[in-house]
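Thread: quick sanity check before group meeting

JM: Hey all, I'm pulling together slides for Thursday and realized we never actually wrote out the predicted structure for the chain we discussed last week. Dropping the sequence here so it's in one place. If anyone has concerns about the input, flag it before I start.
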Amino acid sequence: MITFQQEILNLVKCFRRQWRLFSNSERTTVCGADCMLMALQLSMAEVNKQHHGDFTVSLSDVLETWNYLLHDKLGLSYENMKEPENYADVKKAYHAFLARSNMLDLVDICQKCCSLGLLPEDESIAPVQLLEFISGIMSVQENNGSVLSTPSTQVNRQGQENGKASILAKKSVCSYLSLLVNSKDDLALAHVLNVPDRGLGREAFTNLKHASQKKKMSIFLMATSFIRTIELGGRDCSSSLYDPLRAHVKGLSNFVNFIDKLQEIVGEILNPRIAGGRILSTVKMHLIKGRSNGDPFCQAVEEVVQDLDLKIKNIIDSQQEILTSSSTGVSPTR
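JM (edit): ok, ran it. Output follows.
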């Protein structure tokens, strides 16, 4: 499992080095398994709205379509599977969502690397392996025996809570960083729009999404445009198009102004090592503000930030070494 995870990491590194062969934008981001599933869920809800009038989808339908989509994209046999309802529309909506969000999923990256011969033969990834990795089968098989044989105790439940806090902390910090790199990443925005609590729940996100579709812009740009209009012209100046968002002015203003603060750090601090540390510190303080010291989430955020800070500095040092020894033209700030 460790070896295969390293192969996936090498795959992503290959994409980072050769991004021009994959995309027109250096800011294109990788859509991992969890984001692929969320993108599919949103796409299915959108298709359901078009066909049935409701922006909803059941979890069982999502998982069924997820399994079918993975087999389809990976070229694996799905003859014994029932084709999901409106599958052609769902698949089209899924890829359109990724394109709008300036993202590529792991399957597309892997297939592109293989077709261009960018990976050594000993690092090639079989479709079945990628299917198992994305769907989580490998992790389940690896942990199956110990999980089933471990009784539920207070210690285990505490460990589960800490694990959830760690996942949420990592997803939140990384999503803020992702938005700085790729402001079109609607999935990253969805993760942190209401983290910490800004009163921006499902209704706010849905209103933002619908408004962004009408204006043909990303959700982040829609939120920014709305808040700028309010700030420059007054609370009552916006047109009827923005009416559903008026109930969320306070929360959206908090979110947009915080992203502005992070972008100011990027623009004002030229040293990427210092800028990276300052951004992470600012995000950390934002996430733990108002929480008690004993909160598992606070501890998880602290650990995630320390880990990412070290990784960012290692990446910058590595890129600077490359620039010193060659003329690749790769920016160390990437």
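AS: nice. Residues 4-138 form one domain. The chain has 14 helices and two strands.
JM: adding both to the slides.
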